[in-house]
Amino acid sequence: MIVEDVRCEPVAAGRRLSAAVRAGAELPSARLHFTVPDGEGDWLPERGDAFLAVLLMPAMSLGEELVVDAPVSGRLLRSARTVMEIYAAWWARLREVRVTAGELVGAERGQDGAGLFFTLGVDSFYSLLRDREHRSDPAHRPVSELLFVNFEQHAGPEYDRLLDRVRLVAERSGCRAVPVETNVRAFTAPLVRWEDFHGAALAGTALALQGLLGRCLIAASFEYRHLPPYGSHPVLDHLWSTEALDVVHDGAEATRAQKVARRIARSDLALQHLAVCWRGRPGQNCGACEKCLRTMVTLELAGVLGRCATLPGVLDLDRLRTVPMSSAEAREAMREVGFDARAGGRPDLAEAAELAADRYGPVPPPTVTR
Questions:
Q1: Residue 364 lies in a domain
Q2: CB–CB of 214/109 below 8 Å?
Q3: Positions in the chain short of pLDDT 50
Q4: Fewer Cβ neighbours under 10 Å: the N or C end of the chain?
Q5: Can you give the pTM of this predicted structure?
Q6: Would you say residue 368 lies in a domain?
Q7: Which pLDDT value is given to residue 364?
Q8: Given this model, what pLDDT does residue 165 score?
Q9: At which of 250, 277, 307 does a domain end?
Q10: What pLDDT is recorded for position 367?
């Protein structure tokens, strides 16, 4: 797999960092890009770090050497070996490959902003609200940029309304909203599973923006007490850092229910704009999918379900018991919610969540074959 012709240039939508990618027969040659509407030219330096991050797992899936014909951070290139070791230990289909760069570079400090990947969801809202509480600490570098990445390449009025809500939250939080458009997910989908890959996709986006960011938070999906193999993980995310950018896995000290009780339930801004899924009507979540239902359980545990403007005010336990779940990660998350409900003195919620997870069988332990 070869990455070449890395360039940053103005386009109709803003500024774009892109590279030509040539790979095996499973992937057509194409230009991979990160586009920032209204972005400034120096936000997106002409470096290969972002492309190394997002193409490492696809190259391992193909068993192909990854050649990045562009300047790459020496720290990142060294860390890539550890990333591959972790990937290969978790997912046996992935093989370690040789990774080379056209030039190794060190620190090139940009504007030193602090970013947070923000989706209006529980995890990213928790990280934002927790960050706000430390703004008075002179040693703390507060989040200044909320990164909203359109990996699915959505377009149209519904997407525009969601982006408007992100901008509103950013404004009320003293931040700037930075939307990013990218074809990373579509380009890599034939070779990688999104749940395994999304952490690298997020890190790649942060690496593309090294002219703007000196630090970037990735909100945790799981907590320290239970950390299954997953694309964003505390043993992985920091390895995407360079001499100029620190990538930080944030919020793994709290369960989903604790995040809601400690921060979300106390924030009218979060309760007015919490986003869980794309299936509902404008400004609303569907209230019926597994993500919506387990979020509703956590809000019910915190006593604020009726105050959340974007979800139904009443939880249907029959719907919770029978909700379909499409992945092992979803079942694990539902079991986590059931654990918190039982610990919170709500056996009715716990039993419904546990039954939903158990209907699809136990989550098998990771297996490695050699």
A1: no
A2: yes
A3: 362-370
A4: C
A5: 0.92
A6: no
A7: 46
A8: 94
A9: 250
A10: 38
